[in-house]
Amino acid sequence: MSRALVIAVDGPAAAGKGTLARRLADALGLPYLDTGLLYRAVGRRMLDAGLDPAAHPADEQARRVTPEDLKRGDLRVPEVDRAASLVAAQQAVRAILVDVQRDFARAAGGVLDGRDIGTVIFPDAQVKLFITASPAARARRRWEQLATDLHAPDREAQIARVEAELVARDAADAGRAVAPLKAAADAVVIDTDHLTAEQVLVEALRVVRAGALGTV
Ligand code: CDP
């Protein structure tokens, strides 16, 4: 019997991984997991407990993460971006979350997006995509996702701040000792700077068909 199809979608912050992974999962009828939410939930718990994620071990909070935590509406705020990246650099936290991610795709496969899906979590995934874009394009998209006023007079300054935060977080994610952000050697890199979400999906489906032929 052939293995369930696993598609790894990795890449830097706000590159469009989530949008692509959700659409791929819909198109292929696979379960979808946003693994960033796991780290965000741990970061959120640390902040709620009054613990500085830069100074305290977060494994205790990682063990307590529940499915309900992942549905919280306050996971995509700047302080949680930073807290998530800090707890994600802790080996003990990653060790706790490995099994959750592998178990998720065990029965029926899945599309998982994150930083280390193709390198650490599923090094034998049949399809590995690395989604990237320039910091400027990523900052504009993230700002548009979260902005409360699209016509704010200081919008360019706001976008520049988002860009600085993304670049700092990418540097931390790529520079850490455990499971750093990087493309797996066998990943297909898609630069989404000049592509619409629809075009990225078409390209990704082409890669899936080429790479996963015979496994679905
Ligand atoms: O949505 P965005 O790309 O901004 O971030 P995310 O995917 O929600 O991930 C938030 C943070 O969690 C990242 O900056 C990483 O530090 C961490 N993360 C990770 O280390 N490994 C993963 N598989 C997913 C996220």
UniProtKB/TrEMBL annotation:
InterPro entries: Cytidylate_kin (IPR003136), Cytidylate_kinase_dom (IPR011994), P-loop_NTPase (IPR027417). The keyword Isomerase does not apply. ATP binds at residues 11-19. This is Cytidylate kinase. Its EC number is 2.7.4.25. It is an enzyme of class 2 (transferase). Residues 7-208 form the Cytidylate kinase domain. GO terms for cellular component: cytoplasm. Transmembrane segments: none annotated.
